[in-house]
Prior knowledge:
Blueprint lengths: L3 E6 L3 H5 L9 H4 L1 E6 L6 E6 L7 E7 L17 E3 L1 E3 L1 E3 L6 E3 L9 E3 L7 H6 L2 E6 L1 E6 L7 E6 L6 E11 L6 E10 L3 H5 L5 E2 L1 E2 L4 H6 L5 H11 E2 L4 E7 L11 H5 L8
Parallel strand pairs: 4-14, 5-14
Antiparallel strand pairs: 1-2, 1-11, 3-4, 3-10, 6-9, 7-8, 10-13, 11-12, 12-18, 13-14, 14-15, 16-17
Amino acid sequence: xxSILTVKTRPGELVxxxxxxxxxxxxxxxxxxxxxxxxxxxxxxxxxxxxGDGTLxxxxxxxxxxxxxxxxxxxxxxxxxxxLSRPKRNKDSSSxxxxxxxxxxxxxxxxxILSVPSFRDPFRRGQTCLVPLTxxxxxxxxxxxxxxxxxxxxxxxxxxxxxxxxxxxxxxATGEVIPTFTLLTDDPDxxxxxxxxxxxxxxxxxxxxxxxxxxRKMSGQxxxxxxxxxxxxxxxxxxxxxALKNGWQKRAPSPSDISQMKVxxxx
Length: 267
């Protein structure tokens, strides 16, 4: 959560919430009504960030982060969501299949964002952002909304600001700069899990927004602790958009898999 985001803003709405916000491209001045697909990697969405000079600005960036070391854009891997931690996968030497560590009667070992090559450098450097959205869309394969594409919104579909990372990838052959971003995810909020998804957006307390956007001196570990300390649970409402195609059950997790999923508890 999420592979698709929706955003609807009226002209000037972001500047009302962030009075010192610069809008060099007229993004906020025009307002927005968008549905942006992260897996397509070539669709733009508005992002609020600082490039390190202490000022905030809003610009459009491509939804799917491209790291500095990537050889080309779009980046070949799925990087529209950056999970704060996830079960580490091990190789089964006999089958060469990638297995979760708990499938081999070993302790579950989590790797966090500080060790994931695609995201660790932007996270450590403080290339942080807030992404305004009115809906987070994901396919659900278990729980109350199993078999449906679901959009999670506030009841009145007002704006939510999700925490993310940005990186401007540079084509070394042409000098072209490609602005990209990703959304942070972690264990799902209870309502997200109940409706059938195993991860959730990271939404921060509004009092933490400025520090999240401007603080560059934090260590990576301190930034990770900051995110988890200041995460809040939005009053999500689950809205089923459509049924999944026939055969979706093949992608459904087993009861055993579901029992091992973690749900965010607010701490």
